[in-house]
């Protein structure tokens, strides 16, 4: 009989598990939240509108506790690259990122802002990247994996011929380039369809425990 490995609460997978569970236990807010979030950290966006390609999201998220995020994002503390601070000032990095997303969604011609809700959590600087990474690994969100470009920061006026992101091609309205993506719209639509059809397959062993532990969130 093999000896069970002693539990180590500070191993990376266990830290990641705690981060994921803590984020998922946060209350659901409208987008933008009625109260301005304080601090840096991570957040989840959920869609539950009538846009035809996204009906799976609607079916999963029309509850008091939505289960399937369309996007996972992070908001790092401003000035973080200049060094670690034991007691950084309380700013509104999460709020700033969510406001930018509100603007992007509002400009999109086939999305309605009222169809989105969110969760967010202020996280210590050192763990923000890990929290984002594990949530992306667990949920495989559409706007992180397939329709990338939603969270890109604007870089000034779009240059002539600059390729637009997949997200901007699928949700036209923002001015983020004038050239087409390397993937045409029909192929992109097919990728979105396949995203909802492909089964999860065999999860990474490091994520198996996390998937089991958050079964109550609909990831059985």
Report on the architecture of this protein.
This protein is an alpha+beta fold and 220 residues long. The protein has eight helices and four strands. The protein has helices at residues 12-24, 55-61, 93-107, 128-139, 142-145, 166-170, 185-197, 205-213; strands at residues 29-30, 41-47, 71-75, 116-122. It has a four-stranded antiparallel sheet with strand order 1-4-2-3. α1 crosses α4. The protein is globular and about 50 Å long. The relative contact order is 0.18.
Provide the fold topology.
Blueprint: H1 12-24, E1 29-30, E2 41-47, H2 55-61, E3 71-75, H3 93-107, E4 116-122, H4 128-139, H5 142-145, H6 166-170, H7 185-197, H8 205-213
Antiparallel strand pairs: 1-4, 2-3, 2-4
Keywords:
alpha+beta, 220 residues, globular
Fraction of residues in H or I helices: 25-40%
Range of strand content? 5-15%
Whole-number mean pLDDT: 82
Principal-axis shape equals globular
In short:
With 220 residues, the chain is an alpha+beta fold.
């Amino acid at each position: 009989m093999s000896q069970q490995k002693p539990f180590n609460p500070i191993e990376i997978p266990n830290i990641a598990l705690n981060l994921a569970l803590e984020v998922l236990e946060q209350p659901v807010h409208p987008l933008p939240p009625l109260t301005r979030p304080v601090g840096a950290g991570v957040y989840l966006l959920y869609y539950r509108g009538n846009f035809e390609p996204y009906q799976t999201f609607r079916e999963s998220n029309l509850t008091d506790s939505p289960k399937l995020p369309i996007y996972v994002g992070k908001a790092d503390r401003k000035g973080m690259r200049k060094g670690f601070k034991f007691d950084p000032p309380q700013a509104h990095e999460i709020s700033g990122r969510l406001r930018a997303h509100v603007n992007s969604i509002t400009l999109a011609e086939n999305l309605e802002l009222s169809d989105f809700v969110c969760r967010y959590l202020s996280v210590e600087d050192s763990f923000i990247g890990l929290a984002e990474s594990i949530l992306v690994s667990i949920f495989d969100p559409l706007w992180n994996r397939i329709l990338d470009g939603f969270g890109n920061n604007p870089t000034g006026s779009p240059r002539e011929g600059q390729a637009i992101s997949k997200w901007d091609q699928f949700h036209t309205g923002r001015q983020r380039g004038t050239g087409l993506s390397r993937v045409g719209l029909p192929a992109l639509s097919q990728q979105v369809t396949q995203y909802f059809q492909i089964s999860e397959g065999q999860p990474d062993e490091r994520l198996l425990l996390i998937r089991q532990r958050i079964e109550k969130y609909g990831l059985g």
